[in-house]
Amino acid sequence: MGPDDSPFGPRLLPGGGVRFALVAPAWDAAWLEGVDPAGTVHRRLAMARDGAGVFWVDDPEAGPHTLYRFAGPNGAIPDPASRHQPFGVDGPSRVPAACRPPDWPGRPWAEAVIAEIHVGTATPEGTFAGLEKRLDHYAGLGLTALQLMPVAAWAGGRNWGYDGVLPFATVQPYGRPEDLARLVAAAHARGLMVFLDVVYNHLGPAGNPFPDPWPGLFHPRLATPWGPAPDFSRPLARRLVIDNALHWLETMNLDGLRLDAVDRIIADGPTPLLAELAARVAELPGRPRHLILENDANQAHWLARDARGAPRFHTAQWGDDGHHAAHVLATGERGAYYGDFQDDPATHLARALAEGFAYQGEASPHRGGAPRGTPSRHLPPAALVGYLQSHDQVGNRAFGDRLDSLAPAPAVAALEALFRLAPQIPMLFMGEEWGARTPFLFFTDFEPALGEAVRQGRLGELVRLPGFPADPRRTPPPDPQDPETFAASRLDWAEAETPDGAARLARTRALLAARRRHVVPLIDRLTRAGSWRRFGAAGLSVLWRAEEGAHISVTANLSSHPAAPPDPWPGPPFWRDGRPGDPWSVEWRAA
């Protein structure tokens, strides 16, 4: 292999044939086996080994659609860097056809309006092809990006995606990698970016092929609550993740990645993995790619900007603090992590909107008084993704309740106007645009013993999370292993055609049109925190100023009781729900 060849996954050779590679430091010998769908071996080639334990072989007879596996001292395994597993994670791997994506200039981050989507439940088909049929819906509303929950192959047919074990392979129930490539091309043709949620802090509990050939991938003593933790002090482990990120961004032509729970990357090297990954992505030619973090630790340095205002490392982070404060205001819930926001949720929300994080080193009651977060006033608003619902906040409730099932309609409407028009980047969870009432539940499809362990573990988690029933014996949470739990989570698109659904879609469309006209042109010029003030029990007013004097502001009373508002900020209003100070009123101004 050449020094620039990736040791992860098959590569079609220019003159025909395929180069296969396998990282297997624990093996002394390895063979490539060509197989049929039943697993019968019809060709076996010995592989060469280098000093790092990387095996490789060129097979002139292989090509697109070839089925193969690797054999070693302890038997045969699928390619850990497989691109497609047509018969499941334990079956043979398949060489995909070459993807030749059309040119696409991308979109600037300031224009991003994101829809978070679980491919398996977003449409009746539950496939990439099924989602492709719905792209006009998202583009027509004014959304500009789809963020797919993880698609890396996992064991079984039903999963949120965070139990992936083959990080390069698209999971078979959704379709082939060629189907994902077509979805991405079709989205780009409609002006939609496509982001992908990726998981680098662990691998799932079933079907993981890495431990036999490469036990050193995982830290011998450290683990996450969800699975073994990769040891990123090892160069090949780091390359696995970086090559994976580049695969999705280059080969599959995606526009960005959302990195799940990066605060749980617990075995790192002298150069942080997040820094190295960001540097490698920044080197990609052509359009910019966007990197989004989920980081419960609120580490602002990963979101810092350079002198030109470009991200030094990562583009943005999910704004959990803003969500939590808004949820407390809308629902009155105070349990679990919402306890950090119960004392004065409007102040927490005002600070999160203006400064990025509500917790910037203050003591967290939910964490036993430990400090949480770092100062974030130096960040621009667009370094945060603001949202009212997500797979986490809906799905980690015992019954998968959406906000519309928990809060009065005026509260939801006010918060939608607040979050859709704020200069942070807005995100909607699939179906939120029409006020979907279908739950989003936790579901899995593991073999019985593991399924029972997951079932009991999930109950133990739910006791500590919002929405757990007072008497779980009388109203038990849905069984994650029951296929009906998955079926109940599928969006009901007929809701969008009801009078209430149509009205909500019209409001979403109007809010996003107002955002394009009044907010988006200012976002890149808003380079620092806003200023905020409070009034009444739950009133807030925030002003963001651009360097040359332009500004945008909001005044909102997030309460069912009237309150006297402060004097308005300068500029004419461009969106108004109610009169300032009325219950659940919102007024936006720009100048």
Explain this structure to me?
Residues 558-581 are annotated as: Disordered. It catalyses: hydrolysis of (1->4)-alpha-D-glucosidic linkage in 4-alpha-D-[(1->4)-alpha-D-glucanosyl]n trehalose to yield trehalose and (1->4)-alpha-D-glucan. Pathway: Glycan biosynthesis; trehalose biosynthesis. This is Malto-oligosyltrehalose trehalohydrolase. One of its GO terms (molecular function) is 4-alpha-D-(1->4)-alpha-D-glucanotrehalose trehalohydrolase activity. The protein is an alpha/beta fold and 591 residues long. It has 3 domains: 11-94, Sandwich (Immunoglobulin-like); 109-199 and 241-262 and 274-517, TIM Barrel, CATH 3.20.20; 530-590. It has 13 helices and 28 strands. Strands 10-11-14-17-18-19-22-23 form an 8-stranded parallel β-barrel, surrounded by 4 helices. Strands 3, 4, 7, 8 and 9 form a 5-stranded antiparallel β-sheet that branches. Helix 6 links the parallel strand 17 and strand 18 (290-293). Helix 5 runs parallel beside helix 6 and helix 10 packs parallel to helix 13 (499-523). The longest helix has 25 residues, at 499-523. The chain starts with 10 loop residues before the first strand and ends with a strand.
Question: How would you sum up this structure in a few lines?
Answer:
The protein is an alpha/beta fold and 591 residues long. It folds into three domains: 11-94, Immunoglobulins (Immunoglobulin-like); 109-199 and 241-262 and 274-517, Alpha-Beta Barrel (TIM Barrel), CATH 3.20.20.80; 530-590. Helix 5 (235-251) runs parallel beside helix 6 (273-282), helix 7 runs antiparallel to helix 8 and helix 10 packs parallel to helix 13 (499-523).
